[in-house]
Specification:
Layout: E1 3-4, H1 10-15, E2 21-26, H2 31-46, E3 52-57, H3 62-67, E4 75-80, E5 83-89, H4 94-104
Parallel strand pairs: 1-3, 2-3
Antiparallel strand pairs: 2-4, 4-5
Length: 105
């Protein structure tokens, strides 16, 4: 299950997580974002219990998007132990995300 992260709960859900976290920065109006969303939904099911997948709506969460310098969407950040360890800007095939997730585990 993909969870929604916001400016107010980001630290609790992502930074303090004991599991690796994949964070999708997106917006409703972004066509490529809508293509990435279903891929991350599938990966959330496939990696259930191993990785947390979260979404941040950049239109409603300027603070966290700004903190991580998100200038283009979709941008997916990969966190381990509260630190960004990888990044993917733009829509890519599902296996690209899976490969990056595998390196987190």
């Amino acid at each position: 299950m993909v969870i929604e992260a916001t400016d107010s709960n980001f630290d609790e859900l992502v930074i303090k997580s004991e599991k690796p976290v994949v964070v999708d920065f997106w917006a409703e109006w972004c066509g490529p974002c809508r293509a990435v969303g279903p891929l991350l939904d599938e990966l959330s099911d496939e990696y259930d219990g191993k990785v947390i997948i979260a979404k941040v709506d950049v239109d409603n969460n300027y603070g966290i998007a700004g903190k991580f310098g998100i200038r283009n969407i979709p941008t997916v950040l990969f966190f381990k132990n509260g630190e960004v360890v990888d990044k993917q800007v733009g829509a890519v095939p599902k296996n690209n995300y899976a490969t990056k997730i595998d390196t987190l585990l």
